[in-house]
Amino acid sequence: MQRLALACLTILSIAFSTGAGAAGETLRCGSKIVRTGMMMDEVRKYCGQPTSTEVIEHDVRSGNRVTGTTYENIWTYRRGSNKPARLHFDNDKLMSIRYEK
Questions:
Q1: Dihedral angle over CA of 83, 48, 24, 54, nearest 10
Q2: Burial, 75: exposed, middle or buried (Cβ in 10 Å; 0-12, 13-18, 19+)?
Q3: Per the structure, how many domains does the chain have?
Q4: CB count in 10 Å sphere of residue 45
Q5: Which domain holds residue 84?
Q6: Could you tell me if residue 7 is inside a domain?
Q7: Bridge partners (DSSP) listed for residue 58
Q8: How confident is the model at residue 10 (pLDDT cuts 50, 70, 90)?
């Protein structure tokens, strides 16, 4: 039983470390590739100003107490005939890239 659990954990570890399940997590801007983990300034440098932006404020909690605030920034790039790309940042770090239908 332990060997089976270890084998499953090893397979999951390899899958996540190689980026499996991360389809759609890149965006081409000219000759540059934007990836999750990049910072807002770097994305803006590669892709220019987004078509639209949205900021969502979230409370940071410890138990029932609010201890601070964090911000989720959502940038949308409309790319001609391609599907619009929505980039989600937690504070300044790019967390995900989604393509609208």
A1: -80
A2: buried
A3: 1
A4: 13
A5: 24-99
A6: no
A7: 70
A8: very low
Q: Which two tokens stand for residue 46?
A: 């590669």
Which tokens go with 58?
A: 């979230």
pTM: 0.69
Q: How many residues does the chain have?
A: 101
**6 assigned to some structural domain:** no
DSSP string, 26-50: EEEETTEEEETT-BHHHHHHHH-S-
Average pLDDT, the chain: 81
Neighbours of 50 (CB within 10 A): 19
Q: How many CA atoms lie within 13 A of 35 on its CB side?
A: 5
| Those residues with Cβ within 8 angstroms of residue 22's Cβ, 6 or more apart along the chain or in another chain | 36
CATH number at 35 reads 3.30.1450
- Give the mean pLDDT of 68-75: 93
69, part of any domain = yes
Look at residue 16 and tell me if it is in a domain: no
Q: Which whole number is the average pLDDT over 36-62?
A: 95
